[in-house]
Amino acid sequence: MTVKSLISETSPILHQKIKPVTQFDDQLKQLLLDLEDTMYHEEAAAVAAPQIGENQQVAIIDMELDGLLQLINPEIVSQSEETVTDLEGSVSLPDVYGEVTRNQMIVVKSNDKEGNEVELTAYDDVARMILHMMDHFDGVLFTERAERILTDEEMEEYFNHG
């Protein structure tokens, strides 16, 4: 098990364009394992390589019953016009939550760990998490997209009374 340290929101890598993966090798497979270990250790739903200081377009999302989704060099193929505003947070910004509007449905083209192209359609929370991870590849934090950030009192109310 290799749990990596999360970098702080002030780190430059979280604010820059991240490089696409060009080598589909054992180092990439190890990075995916490191991301998985780190995600579970942090009790997060997803984590992107820049969040552990790696300049590669790689992310992993826990889709619970549907297993793990590995995103490598993802690109949006199409998206719905319908949007949903919901609460978002990030392991890079502990205890910060904001309301963010995202497309309800997206079609994403990505690579698997062998370099093969795959395409998937995602809805609702999974679409939100993919878009959130892709923002990390563009150097954008969810707080830059948030319509508003919740106050401490609002967060306590939300998490205690859901």
Annotate the secondary structure layout.
Elements: H1 26-41, E1 46-48, E2 58-62, E3 68-79, E4 83-90, E5 93-103, E6 105-111, E7 117-123, H2 124-137, H3 142-145, E8 148-149, H4 152-161
User: Structural class from helices and strands?
Assistant: alpha+beta
Distance N to C terminus: 33 Å
Unreliable stretches:
none
Spatial ordering of strands, largest sheet: 1-2-3-6-7
Main sheet?
5 strands, antiparallel
Rg, nearest Å: 15 Å
Determine the mean pLDDT: 94
Number of strands: 8
Note the overall shape: globular
Overview of the molecule:
With 162 residues, the protein is α+β, with helices and mostly antiparallel strands. It has 4 helices and 8 strands; from the N terminus they run αβββββββααβα. It has helices at 26-41, 124-137, 142-145, 152-161, and strands at 46-48, 58-62, 68-79, 83-90, 93-103, 105-111, 117-123, 148-149. The strands form 2 sheets. It has a 5-stranded antiparallel sheet with strand order 1-2-3-6-7. A hairpin with a 5-residue loop joins strand 2 (58-62) and strand 3. The longest helix has 16 residues, at 26-41. It is globular and about 45 Å long. The mean pLDDT is 94.
